[in-house]
Amino acid sequence: MDNAWIIAFYKETDPVKRQELLKANTGDGESEKDKYRKQLWIARYGKRKPVKDEFMRCLMEMKYLAEGTTVDLGGKRRKQGAKIAATLGLSESLLQEKVYEEILLQELQNVFLKFIEVSRGGRAFTSLVFGMGQMSEEGVTKKIAQQISTIAFRAPHLLHMEKEFALLQEAALEAFRQIYPNREHFLKK
């Protein structure tokens, strides 16, 4: 089996190009892995042409949960965390299957790669006070590490859901290591 398309599929952050790769390399006699890839594709982008990225939306919700108040009256924030985990496909019953867990880990790494790409490309993210000047590459790396730490580590800790988000944390680490080797010390785990 040709694994080159799988590597390209998970490195690609453009949803349209990813969809083309998926369609071109999976067919009717698809494997269990291909079925999971398609299932996660639909969960992330929907059934039609990719317009929105639900997994990216979940990362932003995690960020807002972590940055908001720490008071959780009635367990509303924890319920929202459980909903995010379900949207990301992190349900315990699905993770029992190792093949699914492997495919989900790759998909979550791709979400973090997209997050890093969008962050690095945003002028508001990389500029200094009032858009005057640009941050150094080291400064951008630290800022991205801080954002990923908030999403993948601080939010699950505040929600007391570290176990539920363990795969998300692993994906965040792997994506960060891929883009910023030898910079893992910037992450606050």
Describe it.
By secondary structure, this protein is an all-alpha fold. It has a domain at 55-186. It contains 9 helices and no strands. The protein has helices at residues 4-11, 15-25, 32-45, 54-67, 76-87, 98-121, 123-126, 137-158, 166-179. Helix 4 (54-67) packs antiparallel against helix 5 (76-87), helix 6 crosses helix 9 (166-179) and helix 8 (137-158) packs antiparallel against helix 9. The chain is globular and about 50 Å long. The model has no long low-confidence stretch (mean pLDDT 85).
Helix content: 55-70%
Order of helices and strands: HHHHHHHHH
The shape is globular
Instruction: Specify Rg, calculated over alpha carbons.
Output: 17 Å
Q: In short, what is this structure?
A:
It holds the Pfam family DUF6553. With 189 residues, the chain is mostly helical.
Write the layout of secondary structure elements.
Blueprint: H1 4-11, H2 15-25, H3 32-45, H4 54-67, H5 76-87, H6 98-121, H7 123-126, H8 137-158, H9 166-179
Helix pairs in contact: 1-2, 3-6, 4-5, 4-8, 6-9, 8-9
Observed structural traits:
189 residues; mainly alpha; 9 helices; 65% helix; 0% strand; globular
